[in-house]
Design a protein that fits this description.
By secondary structure, the protein is of the alpha/beta class. Helix content is 24%, strand content 26%. The chain has one domain: Bira Bifunctional Protein, Domain 2 (BirA Bifunctional Protein, domain 2, 2-Layer Sandwich). The protein has four helices and eleven strands. Strand 7 and strand 8 form a beta hairpin.
């Protein structure tokens, strides 16, 4: 029997969250195979930060001086893909799962994770679907928006049969930071957030927060159903010493 611990800490610095992911992966990997029965689902937000995947290069950063002056950190990480941007109002989900012991394939896991997120925003009018060729959730073009727009980025890493990284979906964030990079190696990629689909998008911070909570709650239920486990709310002892966190690149 597998279990899934749901962790919802709010806004977490990227270096701290990355350290936690790696610690959880190490913890699971240190267990005998038959004891790798607990996975973790981290649902959180980040302060403004840019991450570069395995194929990401600093050329994707359009103005490093601006980033330095505004305290925007850049991390080189081991997920697939290139450059993306995170900020508050964007829901980020990191599944730390022992997929080998759960008999899950990474391709199916990624596709189903994305599908669960697409279903979670559909009640708010968002018609998005997963595109494996340019990994993420993209809108279905229509008369008003004839060009597909990207709403979520997807990137995962599997090491020793355990996943890290995941999906980041734009919900209420302003998305200005995507103009500071060449996102996903695709210049001029059009982005959108969930507010773009709503006839009367919320403006009050507390209402926006409730919107994020609703999407998160629906996603957790759908994703745990797909995994065949119950997500149990839990807490973690987060590493507080910043010197022990994963560190950003020097720009």
């Amino acid at each position: 029997m597998h279990t899934l611990k749901l962790i919802t800490p709010g806004v977490v610095p990227y270096g701290q969250a990355l350290t936690m992911q790696l610690q959880l992966r190490q913890h699971i990997a240190a267990l005998p195979a038959e004891e790798q029965t607990t996975g973790y689902l981290l649902c959180l937000q980040h302060p403004p930060v840019i991450t570069l995947g395995k194929r990401g290069e600093t050329e994707a950063l359009l103005n490093t001086t601006f980033l330095q002056d505004n305290g925007v950190e850049v991390f080189k990480i081991d997920r697939g893909g290139e450059a993306t941007f995170h900020e508050p109002g964007q829901l980020v989900v990191y599944p730390i799962l022992p997929i080998r012991s759960m008999n899950l394939g990474v391709v199916d896991l990624i596709r189903n994770m994305a599908d669960c997120m697409a279903k979670s925003v559909a009640p708010f009018g968002a018609d998005v679907s997963y595109d494996k060729d340019t990994p993420g959730l993209w809108t279905t073009p229509d008369a008003q928006h004839p060009v597909a727009r990207k709403m979520a980025s997807v990137g995962m890493r599997v090491s020793r049969g355990i996943t890290t990284h995941g999906i980041a979906i734009n919900l209420t964030n302003p998305m200005l930071g995507f103009s500071w990079i060449v996102p996903c190696g695709m210049p001029g990629t059009p982005f959108c957030n969930l507010l773009n689909f709503m006839d009367n998008p919320p403006t009050l911070p507390e209402v926006k927060a409730e919107l994020i909570r609703q999407v998160q709650t629906t996603f957790v239920q759908l994703f745990s159903d797909y995994l065949g486990v119950e997500a149990t709310p839990d807490t973690l002892e987060w590493p507080d010493d910043e010197s022990l966190w994963e560190q950003p690149m020097a720009l």
